[in-house]
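Please go through the sequence and fold tokens given here and tell me how the chain folds. Record follows.
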Amino acid sequence: MQKITATVVMEVPKDKVVITKAEYEQLKHDADAGTWWTTQDITDRYHHKMDWFKEKIFYQPKYKKLLSDEYGGPVHYSSNDNGRHWSFEPNGFKIFMEKYFSEINGGKSR
């Protein structure tokens, strides 16, 4: 069997950079550091209406205890406003969704 070795040269435009996947993941993580999401951010990012989140997650006692900032979770539930002024710590909420999304939709959590 013959083997051929080839060298490929690619030009990277001056306005672009090449980074590792680990660096990319860190940049995504850092983009939300020090910020809080709103209910609009949640619906935009996860493509579900707030009513879906309330029914499936936020008003479920099991998840509310995991999520509420009263118990160290990433969601601040403001009282008596039906979710209009809730806020979400992005990285903690992303971790929750990755872990429980399948369970929330009828499967098993990771």
